[in-house]
Amino acid sequence: MVARHDLTTDPEIQEQLLTVRRGTAFWHRKVHELSDAELDGPTLLSGWTRRHLIAHVGYNARAIARLVLWANTGVETPMYASPEVRDQEIELGATMPARALRHLDDHAAVSLNVEWRDTPADLWSTIVRTAQGREVPLSETVWMRTREVWLHAVDLDNGARFSDIPESVLERLLGDITGMWQKRGTDPGFAIEVLDRPDLGTLGAGAGASSATAVTGTLAAVAAWASGRGASALATGQETEPPRWL
Predict the structure, then answer these.
(1) Which residues pair with residue 102 across a beta bridge?
(2) What confidence score (pLDDT) does residue 1 get?
(3) Which end of the chain has less Cβ packing within 10 Å, N or C?
(4) 11-160: what fold?
């Protein structure tokens, strides 16, 4: 019998599922605020219209659902056949009639949610592989989707702001970004101070160095800057370009 509630009993995963569902609802609200004509407008992502972005988020839900299927069946099911197939899928999706594009976005999100809901508690630690080749436990897919829906709601450029994103999401996002810079050795020596979260300390490779490049601002402002989505809200460091992180 199909479950009507999450089978996982892990309180951390349950909390993460709540956050991703809130983000999904926020994403859908911003999409449905757009008229069909406005779907052709630009986003904050260079070269992508809102149609491209909505297609991407819809197909991303399907791709993550394939990882959930992998964990539940034991049959390896990659997110995408190849990067080229992923790109072609988005380009084709962007040409759909508005109604079909909206249906893709809505239906794919519902299907993914059902896959998560019906995943037994003992399978959330199953190792799957992301499109970037990282081997992660299935539980990581919740964060992968959380990041997608909250960030891309801002990228739609129709009113969503980083200050709308939950603090827990911003904190983890900033940790991921600075961690990736450290792993790749691309941090030129930032000393990042989050003014409304002094408990985070000084982030970046320049922490404690007199020659560090100072970047300061609220958690929302710093996360926006670090993710490449503008520096205007920073207190200092507005002219500082962050490295790529994806």
Answers:
(1) none
(2) 45
(3) N
(4) Four Helix Bundle (Hemerythrin (Met), subunit A) (1.20.120)
